[in-house]
Amino acid sequence: MQSMNFSLQDEKALITGGGTGLGLGIARAFVDAGAQVVLVGRRENELRSATESLGTAAAYVVHDITRLDNADQLIKRAESISPGPVSILVNNAGIHLKKPAHETNPHEFNNVLQTHVVAAHALVAAVLPGMIERKHGSILFTASMASLFGLPLVVAYSAAKSAYLGMVRSLASELGSSNVRVNAIAPGWIESAMLAKALAGDPKRAEKILARTPMNRFGDPSDIGAAAVYLCSPAAKFVTGIILPVDGGASIGF
Q1: Is 157 a catalytic residue?
Q2: Which of 35, 160, 251, 254 measures 20 to 30 Å from 207, CA to CA?
Q3: CB 89 within 8 A of CB 124
Q4: Domains of the chain listed by start with CATH number
Q5: Per residue in 93-139, pLDDT tens?
Q6: CA separation (Å) from 142 to 72, 167, 176, 206, 227?
């Protein structure tokens, strides 16, 4: 009974940015929990490699989520790959921009918002009719520490990730009666190629991050995957509208 509470058997998850990093960590945990997964991204080589590593429960679609008019088409393609509708949507894809605020131009700012916020909403709008009709579905956003406290040099990224909090709460309020749950995970600093690149040649930054993290270590993509399984599983059937930090205590550390 306990294992069934955390099972994703008979679920199909569409995961944007699923070929690497946190998206792949979520996909791996979903497959282990019994779900079918469809990975979405722009780089086919990464998607193919990720899918091969996940086995027969995984497939991929090469797609640019900023092509907003094609969101419906993406859902249809994902549902045609294997039997069953998309019952879980993970809005994980995003881009990063690290620049001083006064050097961030409107085009750059809008590009970050378009990828994180507008494209995520387009996918939500495309997948919701089926979820509402079936009265079953889960939508998950990958938020950030930048959603919870101020970080310098990432004004566009912070704006985008903070927007997720409002989206989650509004959607959860609107969709609760349809048994569609909406939540977010706010990852802390997780071991990944992106983190390695961010910390390369900057040992003081790594020391600063660990100094404010009570568990005094970086996380692993599997930590995010396990949290995602929980939030999308029957174990969380009465959980909606939350932002769950998975950060080793960084958001409460000093």
Answers
A1: yes
A2: 160
A3: yes
A4: 2-245 (3.40.50.720)
A5: 999 899 999 999 999 999 999 999 999 999 999 999 999 999 999 99
A6: 21, 12, 20, 22, 11
Q: What is the 3-state secondary structure (H, E, C) of the chain?
A: CHHHHCCCCCCEEEEECCCCHHHHHHHHHHHHCCCEEEEEECCHHHHHHHHHHHCCCEEEEECCCCCHHHHHHHHHHHHHHCCCCCCEEEECCCCCCCECHHHCCHHHHHHHHHHHHHHHHHHHHHHHHHHHHHCCEEEEEECCHHHCCCCCCEHHHHHHHHHHHHHHHHHHHHHHHHCEEEEEEEECCECCHHHHHHHCCCHHHHHHHHHCCCCCCCECHHHHHHHHHHHHCHHHCCCCCCEEEECCCCCCCC
> Of 60, 157, 164, 230, which is the active-site residue?
157
**In three state form, how does the secondary structure of 185-212 look?**
EEECCECCHHHHHHHCCCHHHHHHHHHC
Model pTM? 0.95
Interatomic CA distance for residues 88 and 85, integer angstroms: 9
Structure tokens at 105: 């131009």
Task: Give pLDDT < 50 ranges for the chain.
Answer: 1
Name the one residue in this structure whose structure tokens are 């995957």: 225
